[in-house]
């Protein structure tokens, strides 16, 4: 009999990829493997991979291609962008589930486009 996997997994991603692609997958993953805690860091910054490698193994996901900030915000008003950012961050700090955040983000993008 094998022991259940346990430990910590750190994931860094852009907000769009993290919310749309990773959050639902992480919710399923943590339900399947409750002994593994997942820390999802979302940032638009380019991160030095060598700095990340000090914490452990790294990988690069090239598919699907990421949406850059300028294209994601194209056709939206600045106030709308800032308000959406504030709402998502507030909900995150109120411990709203990653799956629910992804749903809110997808619904908002569909409505805006």
Describe the structure.
With 113 residues, this protein is α+β, with helices and mostly antiparallel strands. It has one domain. Helices cover 52% and strands 12% of the residues. It has a two-stranded parallel ribbon with strand order 1-2. Strand 1, helix 1 and strand 2 form a beta-alpha-beta unit.
Percentage beta strand: 5-15%
Order of helices and strands: EHEHHHH
Task: Give the overall pLDDT as a whole number.
Answer: 77
* Rounded Rg: 16 Å
Q: Which stretches of 5+ consecutive residues score pLDDT under 50?
A: none
**How helix-rich are the residues, as a percent range?**
40-55%
Shape: globular
Strand order of the largest sheet: 1-2
Oligomer: single chain
Number of helices: 5
SS-based class: alpha+beta
Could you give a short account of the major beta sheet? 2 strands, parallel
| N- and C-termini, Cα separation | 51 Å
| Counted beta strands | 2
Tally of distinct domains = 1
What keywords describe this structure?
single chain; 113 residues; alpha+beta; two-stranded parallel ribbon; 5 helices; 52% helix; globular
How would you briefly describe this protein structure?
The protein is of the alpha+beta class and 113 residues long. Helix content is 52%, strand content 12%.
Secondary structure: elements and pairs:
Blueprint: E1 7-13, H1 15-32, E2 36-42, H2 49-53, H3 69-73, H4 78-93, H5 98-112
Parallel strand pairs: 1-2
Helix pairs in contact: 1-5, 4-5
């Amino acid at each position: 009999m094998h022991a259940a996997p346990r430990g910590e997994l750190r994931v860094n991603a852009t907000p769009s990829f993290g919310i749309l692609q990773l959050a639902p997958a992480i919710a399923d993953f943590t339900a399947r493997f409750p002994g593994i805690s997942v820390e999802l860091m979302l940032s638009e910054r380019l991160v030095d991979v060598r700095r990340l490698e000090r914490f452990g193994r790294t990988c690069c996901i090239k598919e699907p291609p990421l949406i850059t900030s300028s294209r994601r915000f194209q056709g939206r008003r600045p106030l709308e962008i800032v308000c959406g950012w504030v709402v998502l961050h507030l909900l995150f700090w109120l411990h709203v589930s990653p799956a629910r955040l992804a749903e809110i983000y997808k619904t908002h993008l569909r409505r805006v486009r």
